[in-house]
Amino acid sequence: VQLQASGGGLVQAGGSLRLSCAASGLSFSTYTVAWFRQAPGKEREFVVFMTRSGSGTYYADSVKGRFTISRDNAKNTVYLQMNSLKPEDMAVYYCAATKRAPSANGRLYDYWGQGTQVTVSS
User: Fold this and answer.
1) Where are the alpha helices (DSSP H) in 6-117?
2) Is 105 helix (H, G, I), strand (E, B) or coil?
3) Are 74 and 16 in contact (CB under 8 A)?
4) Which helix (H) or strand (E) covers residue 36, if one does?
5) What are the start-end ranges of the H helices in 1-122?
6) Tens digits of per-residue pLDDT, 57-94?
7) For residues 104 and 35, is the Cβ–Cβ distance under 8 A?
8) Alpha carbons 108 and 12: distance in angstroms, whole number
9) What are the phi and psi torsion angles at 62 (to 5°)?
């Protein structure tokens, strides 16, 4: 199983980025998938998860209304559209997947991507 996150980069505050997480060895349609992030010196933080059906999502309050998770089953890829980016969004973003019930607890996720850096300049 491999999750490959990509799409990070440098963006000005107020700008947008779209992250991608492509999976091999598992099908996102049978896994809960989530995005987490970790800023330097801080603990890993939950961002959003999507249920196996794709119909259920849950966002952290800090990103609600600005970030959107979506999934392309044909490409077996999950996306995180990030709009109105703020300096406090700057972090390494990780995608993760689990067969367990949806959760904001990263410890319950079995598979992780390598992370992609998002840098937001003010």
Assistant:
1) none
2) coil
3) no
4) strand 32-38
5) none
6) 999 999 999 999 999 999 999 999 999 999 999 999 99
7) no
8) 33
9) -70, -20
